[in-house]
Amino acid sequence: MLRPLTLIPVAVFAVLAVVFAVYLWQVGPGGKDISKIPSAMINKPAPQFDLKPIANLPARLKIPGLKTADLKGGVSLVNVWASWCPPCRIEHPVLMNLAQQGVTIYGINYKDKPEDAARFLDQLGNPFKKVGVDNTGRTAIDWGVYGYPETFVVDASGHIRYRHVGQIYPHQLESLILPLLKQAAQPVTDSSKAGSAGAGGS
Amino acid sequence: MIAEIGHYAVVLAFMLSIAQGILPLIGAHRNDTALMGVAAPAACGQFMFVLIAFCALTYAYVVSDFSVALVAQTSHTLKPMLYKVSGVWGNHEGSMLLWILILALFGLMVARFGRNLPAGLRARVLGIQGLIGIGFLAFLLFTSNPFLRLDPAPFEGQGLNPLLQDPGLAFHPPFLYLGYVGFSMAFSFAVAALIEGRVDPAWARWVRPWTLVAWTALTIGIALGSWWAYYELGWGGWWFWDPVENASFLPWLVGTALLHSALVVERRDTLKSWTILLAIIAFGMSLLGTFLVRSGLLTSVHTFATDPERGVFILGLLIVVIGGSLVLYAIRAPMLKGGGLFAPVSREGALVLNNLLLATATAVVFLGTLYPLALDAIGGGKVSVGAPFFNATFVPLMVPLLIACPVGAMMAWKRGDLPGVVGRLKVAVGLALLVVLATVMIDGNTDIVAALAMGVAAWLVGGAAVDLAERTGLFRISLSDTLRRAANLPRSAWGTAIAHSALGIMVAGITASSSWQTERIQIVRPGDTVELAGYEVTFKGAGNVPGPNYTALRGTFELTANGRRVTMLYPEKRDYPAEKSSTTEAAIHTTPIADVYVVLGDSDGKGGWATRIYHNPLVPWIWAGAIFMAIGGMVSLSDRRLRVGAPKRAARKTPVAEAA
Fold first, then answer.
1. Residues A85 and A158 both lie in one domain
2. Mean per-residue pLDDT, A155-166
3. Which of A8, A132, B59, B515 shows its CA 20 to 30 Å from the CA of A37?
């Protein structure tokens, strides 16, 4: 004496369980690393953009805007962030650490209120050489950004060499980011290697 | 040696849980008293062995035994004792052991206090608890053994994440687990009832106290987490709709619905099938939260070191426990016959409305939390669903719930008189209008939505007060009679009124803090004064202060009002060398109506310091509301009806004595 109504919960649950199983498989045996998603942009030139600086910055924070041409001339990190994104906040000391080691970091401030973004940098320190404001999210789409924060390694010719989705953990500094920066300083030898180097996740 | 004792105790508890999970269920099926009798001693033994294991692990943390791998990874000799102990559950393995300890504790309580339960029901409930125990003990033993040794043992541990070294967070997980695991009781009762094919008012009366315990603990646990986020993350917010926050909020929403629907089963012997389903889902949501956090499918501040193998195990557990019970539900639920009929406008009708709104809200939060994951699983790319989605969907669902709440609570059973109830609530209506008007007048900007929300808050508090006044005959009969009536009023009536008015307090806090927050961001030099909301904050200086396992940069601020010193404030930035990370400690001056919240930023290198100062009106009311809500739960729990125990099932034909 089954009734269709009482079958609904178990049916919904079954769908859910299948989704979880598929996802777990992708993450586990499938080798999909949710913190390292393949990008179509690897080894391509960074997209064209010209972004304004954060409006009404306090006088002591002099951070110019960011455009594609700025990325040429040296290896750099491009970090997509927002003040409303808690992982960005947690990641911030790592960026500060990198900046102190002399790494050039550019920022793309994604869909943020200027006063919040300014407060974020004012309070936590500014690791960025330049920050462009992406209010429409258009530039983030061009870069193929999935989540926030997201960090790209860009080489001296302005080509994207690596993409890191999610926050950079302190232990990934030595094991992942610094080697990648070193590698990006070399000319591309084996294009398939770049972009999949290092172990993402934790 | 101690670690080996702990490990061995877990193995013994696992064996006992197998006995507890199988024999009593067979016994109940065959009506075999001897087999059913296994349940209670097995539950006691299981608790004892898990407690030994938990004590062994705690001991390893207290003496900093770094030959135990887990201790070496998550502790440090310089850590204060409180955080050595709370470090036991500040990691995946230890927190699972705490989970199991609480599960075993609930088993013990049924074995100990469930003597008035019919033998069959008690055996089945304990048997199902045993089955859940098997699953989690196996999970602990085979994928997350906390007692693994490290050889050679390191001289020093790696330390606990400094964000977790905080008194608020030390007690956040135990309360949360008490809530999560507490719903396993409602679940076990629900499955036992499905096996028996019988749900009656007595059943609901046994389920409600367990649900109340779980709900109260979960309320406290969530409030502690949100309070921690408020003062530790240092940016004045207190709820972020983070997936892991949602994972704890989902069982709370379902649990709230369950509390209300169980009331209908108890009083009116109807809504049975729905209540059973809610009991299954409440525990299902608890397990789902555990699964999402432990499997690594959601990454957030809460994520422990994750490992897909554990994810597979918990998914298996989820499928067996929740899938299995939902299949049982599909087969058995049609057999549950509804009892009392009721008109749409009645207490039952109001509780159904409450359940519909809460269930829809649950569905919305559930979708928002899992949609990104599901989309990614089918290759649809990554999206993030944030606060705007939840604010746009969840809040509109809460508005009718809050408005209907005082009306529903005063409605009569079976057939209610809506105009009559609204008429009796005219004092509350007047109070609400007065508050709206006062808010508009005080707030020059006339934020009309915020003013209306404050009115809703007043309506909830006023409604609860009117309800109590009606029941005690306040102002209608002599004061001594009123006092006598108040003393005789069932505790559950007090509990309801306290919890509902607490909701109002919380709504006021949420509204005021999100609508009228003022902030000042500036560089200050020693001697500089910042004015905000009638206070003056004077910066005196900043310097280094050593802590037990950190060094702090501490700012000194003087808070004055009208030239008089109110207090000194000392915000800090702490650097933890062992963990190579740092935390922000906001300094907060709390008054009954507002918080002054000071955060010290970086030095500009020229003697100035970046500072942020907030004035957060009514923000303490959010947590005061949560505490009152929990108190309401506890008061209701102390009701005679629940304490003395339910009448025998034979008495179920007689009408339930109508106290309220």
1. yes
2. 85
3. A132
Pairing between β-strand A66-67 and β-strand A76-81 as defined by DSSP bridges = unpaired
CATH number of the domain encompassing residue A167: 3.40.30.10
Is pLDDT larger for residue B419 or for residue B373?
Answer: B419
Q: Which two three-digit tokens encode residue B510?
A: 């949420």
User: pLDDT tens for residues A170-196?
Assistant: 777 887 888 888 888 877 554 434 443
Find, in chain A, the residue whose alpha carbon is nearest to that of B609.
A123
| B308 at A interface, C-beta within 8 A | yes
CB contact under 8 A, A23 and B373: yes
Complex ipTM value: 0.81
Would an 8 Å CB–CB cutoff place A10 in contact with chain B?
Answer: yes
Q: CB–CB of A9 and B280 under 8 A?
A: yes
Nearest partner of A106 among A137, A133, A87, judged by Cα = A133
Residues A24 and A118 in one domain: no
Q: Which helix (H) or strand (E) holds B310?
A: helix B308-318
- The predicted-structure confidence for B302-342, as pLDDT tens digits, reads as follows 444 456 677 788 889 999 999 999 999 999 988 887 777 88
Whether A36 has a pLDDT exceeding 60, the answer reads no
Q: Which of residues 54-113 of A touch B (CB under 8 A)?
A: 58, 60, 84, 86-87, 89-90, 93
What is the count of structural domains for chain A? 2
Domain match, A2 and A63 both: no
Q: Which residue, among A3, A10, A20, A26, would best test binding to B if mutated, counting the most B CBs under 10 Å from its CB?
A: A20
- Which residue range(s) make up the domain with A2? 1-32
Task: Give the pLDDT score at B302.
Answer: 47
Residue of A nearest to B301 (CA): A87
Say if residue A89 is in the same domain as residue A162: yes
Asked whether residue A195 is domain-assigned, the answer is no
| Structural domain includes residue A145 | yes
B551-568 tens-digit pLDDT? 888 999 999 998 888 999
Shared domain for A157 and A77, answered yes or no, is yes
Residues A82 and A113 in one domain: yes
Partner residue opposite A24 with nearest CB, options B242, B311, B582: B311
Chain B, residues 350-389, CB within 8 A of chain A, namely 370, 373-374, 376-378, 381-382, 384, 386-387
| Residue A191 is assigned to a structural domain of this protein | no
d(CA B100, CA B106): 10
Percentage above 90 pLDDT, chain B: 45
Examine the domain organization and report whether A113 and A19 are in the same domain: no
A139 found inside a domain: yes
Average of pLDDT values for B148-154? 82
